Amino acid sequence: MKHRAVKRRSVVIGLGATAGAAVIGGTAVTAQAENTGSTDSKGGSLDQSLVFDRDDFTEKTESIADASGVERSVTYRFYKARNYVTHPSDSAHQSLVVSVPVKIDGRTVHASSAPIVLANAVGGYMPSSVADAAGVGQTRLEMTGMGGGLPSGMPSGMPPGGMDGSGAGGTGAVNGMVNLGKLALVAGYVVVEPGTRGRSLTDSSGTYYGTAPAVIVDLKAAVRYIRANKGRIPGNVERIVSTGTSAGGASSALLGASGDSKIYEPHLREAGAADASDSIFATGAWCPITDLEHADGAYEWNWGTLPTQTTGKTVDRSVSKELQSQFAEYQARLNLRGLKGSGFGKITARNYDAYLLKQYLQPSATKYLAALSDSERETYLAKSTFIAWKNNQAAFTWEGYLAHVAQRKKPQPAFDAFDLSAGENNEFGKGATKARHFTAYSAKNDTTGLGGKRVDSDIPEKLQLMNPMFHLLEKRNPNRSKHWWIRLGASDTDTALTVAANLAMAAESLGDDVNHAYYWDKGHATNEDPGDFIKWVARVTGYKG
């Protein structure tokens, strides 16, 4: 069933004519097509509607800033929006665009073996679209029609109606976050930007069709489309690097952790995804809002003593203690050990504060202070008396750090709200039901009276579909990404610091390459080291340019 009216015409691709082609951004794509013998990356049959037309591009030249801020003249081939599934429930969102560098400052770029950066623009688990994109970095994150202000996990100060390429492109200049699509392109990488369904989408009957697991199904389908078009889409399909921020960071981490997992097959078949692998090579995740069924406890353990930004008052201490107790039990069950070189063994609720201080917070403060001039450092330390600066090293207590952060952004519970008001409640909506509880604790303490006091029977499966920790620790997925770049602002109270740290420990426990750091004094959706990320991509993929 289509949720957006589109024009239709026939188009000849390769050896066969398509039927019922939907026009997305001026490109004819099709939901049904005659199979003419094309093959996917597994050697199987590929539906003609999913064959990438390498000659259907517009050549563009733009001035794009590289990671150091230097403007470069970039000539690239832009392939406008086309569907990545044969049975899209929403053609405007289940489509992608491709950008391939041709020249940078007049130097010819040969991108046939370049890494492919899959830059998603997911935020707040809301829909994103490339249907109207006319160039790289113009993915539209749709924030309208959601009600209740900004969704959970989105930074404040966003322009009305969402983020587009001129402002942020979903991962753009919000709190300093750069546009990773443009940054990758100017580095000589192939860039694929997928649109995805999101939690606010409804059809004419009021059915929510973009809730979990739609976002991860769409990203997997996009990866399958890329892999199925090996040799047609420029770039190395064995070197796909996913990037995303906030809920997009969570989705990127989930994509990396769940490669080729069979539990998504029914959803991918229903959408008409290509018969190809959906595993990726490397994962970039900035401030991932993930591990949702345990996020409320983690948040209270981290920020429970702080007053909220909206009221200036502390939260219910009894609720906070109950959730903290849940986190302690969960953390003990994970049996995770501190990253190599940290000097820590098993990380529990009792020693997690010491681990965060030593592994992340004090090093990030040290790096920040060391980069200041002597006078700037003196001024900062005079205002931040909780920091002891000795031998060019910063030291402080957990209590001092919390006092420095001062306020928490979210009420309680932060993710599964008792009144079903959180964005994540909407993410687990179903049918005509906009929002549902996904934890037993919040269901038991529901204040809406709209349902029973238990989570619905399908919720446990939905949680497995949406949580990278399930795939890393319970399934030990052999087809996961083996390289992880994880970043978080040290003052990001959209989530708990433990969420990213647990993700890093889980990946490293399986032998994966993990590069994880926090940015001092930075909040949600920040990126302090984009140049290092670009170099990291080149290093882990082995790309020489």
UniProtKB/TrEMBL annotation:
This is Subtype B tannase. NCBIfam families: tannase_B. It comes from the Bacteria. InterPro entries: AB_hydrolase_fold, BD-FAE-like_dom, Tannase_B, TAT_signal. Residues 210-299 form the BD-FAE-like domain. It holds the Pfam family BD-FAE. SUPFAM superfamilies: alpha/beta-Hydrolases.
